[in-house]
Amino acid sequence: MAITLSGDQAIPSPPLSARLTTPQVWGIVLLAPYLLVFLAFVVYPVGYGLWLARHPASYVALYHDPIFARAAVNTLIFLLVGINLKMAIALFLSGFFAQQRTWIKWLSVLFILPWAVPSIPTILSVRFMLNPEWGVINQLIFKFTAEDGPNWLNDPSVALAMAIGVHIWKSLPFWTLILMTGRLAISHDLYEAAAVDGASWSQKFRYITWPSMQTLYITCTLLSMIWTLGDFNSVYLLTGGGPADLTHVLATLGIRYLRLDQLSLAMASIVCALPLVLPLVYFMMKRLSR
Amino acid sequence: MKLPTLREVGTEAKLLLIGIPVFIWTMVPIYHMFLFAISPKEDAFSGKLWPDHPTLNNFSIVFHQQHYFLRDFWIQFWNSVVIALSAGALTLLIATAAAFAISRLRVPGGRWVMNLALFTYFIPAAFLAVPMYRTMGNYGLLNNHWSLILAMVTIASPYAIWVLKQASDKLPGELDEAATMDGATTLQLFRLVYVPLMMPSLVAIGTYAILLAWNEYLYAFLLLSKDTEITLPVALGNFLAADDSPWELLMTTGFIYALPPAAIYYAFRRYMVGGLTAGAVKS
Question: Where in chain B is the domain with CATH 1.10.3720.10?
């Protein structure tokens, strides 16, 4: 059968079943569930989404929508300011938590709490702390200065800064932990030798710590940027995109369009983020798939 | 006992100067939530740092569902439990099978599948949410728990496969050869050799998937809408719809909702830190 079908090919290939060993057949069977999930819930939605975003008119509409421009700028601020600030603090704190002290061990157990608890209740807790009339922060300001505190979430730049703060609060422990494992992997001999030579704290950091952690730090920063693009909770639950839709980021904007029943705009806004996402994803894949 | 030198005292003071702000920064939102949970309504809004009359009354209101917003508390709690456990079990099943096929059986195209999975891992979840919502609608799964379970499996399994593949690459190949020589079939190899050796990683991945599904807000809020079908985080978000939300009850419910994942995290911390952070970023 195979011979007649392959026609004038010089060497007929044997049928598929003959080329595979039993373990390989099992391998395909065991891989099938994931492939099914992948086809049904990744390939189909992504293809469908791209198909929905095919109209050039959607992009024109986005271009003329001031909320989209604002969301794009907010997203960039969130990524460039928020993530770099977070990673710098994480790098600093990783050095702090690498100290061998009993009380620091205990503090590190507590420090991981923001990462271990779900984000919804804690973000809502912060939201209420910032409430202008009833929140504890403004009550304390009133108690000490007898003046009304600011209306925190009503000013778009303050509200965005607060959302970034919430994001940092939530994910700082995770990145500190990762950077700490990197720091602990550095040989202790190097620091001892440097101490003998009389190196200062900043010299030790500049010539030993940073060169060994550079790659890890940059990988972490990029990975955190990709994930933060999808951080819906910090903005949505704290500000809801308000006041006047001025604090949206791309993650919440897509959902906003969806709720307004403008599906093609929702998909188009996501497609607009792809030129930013795909190079980062490509870089990360090269790093991690080795 | 030797008295500490001035230099040692200085170092300790500097460390405390970092440690105290870190402690306050970490604990304030959590303490604020706890404070509301044990305060009667009058105390909660007074801006005090400890209530005059701490009470467990809020918990009793939540557990007895004695408020309009809480009338379906137990069924929503149950929904969260069912969805988290199903997503965890399904992820574990699918990811273990796939990692075994790719790493141990060296199935043709396995590397390719691994790369596809990694690619999915890097798509921000919020970007996939909109098309996923439409897809679930097309499949007729909206307002069905399966939609959320399958969405969570889709999001959790790429990372699960990647971590499990990294871990199983480290198992010596002679193990499989020896078992095959003794006449073990592929399934026996999987059940009697592979799974027992992979236990620590499997625990880590199972915990990871369960926590991911338990904590998920965005997908739950898009895919489920009926009051008796939604999970706890969506119910918490719904409190915000009203202007006169009972914040002390919201914080109490939030506190109850936050306890299981925190407990699971600390119970499995040994596995989580070893299995997940080491795999999360390769330097």
Answer: 71-280
pLDDT tens per residue, range A33-52 = 999 999 999 999 999 988 98
Q: Identify the pLDDT of residue A8.
A: 44
Tens digit of each residue's pLDDT (9 = 90 or more) over A183-199:
888 888 888 888 888 88
Min Cα distance A8 → chain B (Å) is 27
User: What pLDDT does residue A16 have?
Assistant: 58
Q: What is the ipTM of this complex?
A: 0.86
In chain A, CATH 1.10.3720.10 covers 65-288
pLDDT of residue A5: 42
Q: Does A181 touch chain B (CB under 8 A)?
A: yes
Among A241-255, B88-102, B193-207, the range of highest mean pLDDT: B88-102
pLDDT of residue B283: 36
Burial label for B267, CB within 10 Å (0-12, 13-18, 19+), is: exposed
Q: What is the pLDDT of residues B151-176, one digit of tens each?
A: 999 999 998 998 888 888 888 888 88
Supply the mean pLDDT for chain B: 85
Q: Residue B95 contacts by C-beta under 8 Å, 6 or more apart in sequence?
A: A34, B156, B157, B160, B161, B164, B205
CATH superfamily of B71-280: MetI-like (1.10.3720.10)
Burial profile A58-82: b = 16 or more Cβ within 10 angstroms, e = fewer? bbeebeebebbebbbebbeebbeeb
**pLDDT category of residue A83 using cuts at 50, 70 and 90:** very high
Q: Is CATH 3.40.50.10780 the right assignment for the domain spanning A65-288?
A: no
Query: In b/e form, how buried is each residue of A125-161, taking b as 16+ CB within 10 angstroms?
Result: bbbbbbbeeebbbbbebeeeeeeebeebbeebebbbb
pTM of the model: 0.87
Q: Which residues of B touch A37 (CB under 8 A)?
A: 94, 150, 153-154, 157
Q: Which DSSP letter does residue A153 get?
A: G
User: Per the CB < 8 Å rule, is A48 touching B115?
Assistant: no
Q: Which residues of B touch A258 (CB under 8 A)?
A: 130, 133, 222
Note whether B47 and A143 are within 8 A (CB): yes
Joined tokens for residue A240:
């809801």
Cis preceding linkage at B196, omega within 30: no
**DSSP output for B169-186:** HTS-HHHHHHHHHTT--H
